[in-house]
Design goal:
- The chain has helices spanning 23-28, 175-187; strands spanning 11-16, 33-36, 46-48, 54-58, 69-84, 88-101, 109-120, 125-136, 143-155, 165-171.
- By secondary structure, the chain is mainly beta.
- It has one domain: Immunoglobulin-like (Sandwich).
- Strands 1, 2, 4, 5, 6 and 9 form a six-stranded antiparallel sheet that branches.
- A hairpin with a 3-residue loop joins strand 5 (69-84) and strand 6 (88-101).
- 27% of the residues are buried.
Amino acid sequence: MSGFSGGGFLSIFRVCKFGAIALALLLLAACQGQLEEGTVGNCPPTAILDGPSELTRYKPASAKAPTDVLFRTKMTTFSGICDFDANSIDVELNISIEAVRGPANTSGKAEFAYFVAILKKDKTVLTRTKFPIIAEFVRQDARFNFSESVSANIPRRKNDSTSDYILYLGFEMTPEELAHNRRRKRRR
């Protein structure tokens, strides 16, 4: 498992960048719970936030027409496991991401970032870590899926349960991109 233990430190780090889910790490971990959307077991509640769950990036200074789209990304699912003792909670997350190349994308790359935030149950943010990605479309592929694996270590205070913490996932985006998402989702 990851990072620092005790001393009030929080750590989140990327286990692997692209490719298959780090299944070997998951199988070797002594897990006490499993994370899947809709069920949390003995793990902290975890969710992909609605607003920043999808990102549409347009070419700069464009009219935001469909032909101006550089790429779209979407967090499709997540899964994971957790291990905990009296001192800390270790969480291994696997986040599935879909990337779609837009008509304005001439470089074949999509540069974006996602975040993992750890909050207390009262919504106080303990840490928020950003993970930058440069996704490359192979040849003229318009769409591909990949997964990201991250680990989080949450030091526990005495008498805290795993449900006293919350993990949120989403894409980093500008206020304009977030507003675009909210408008688009209202129309659905």
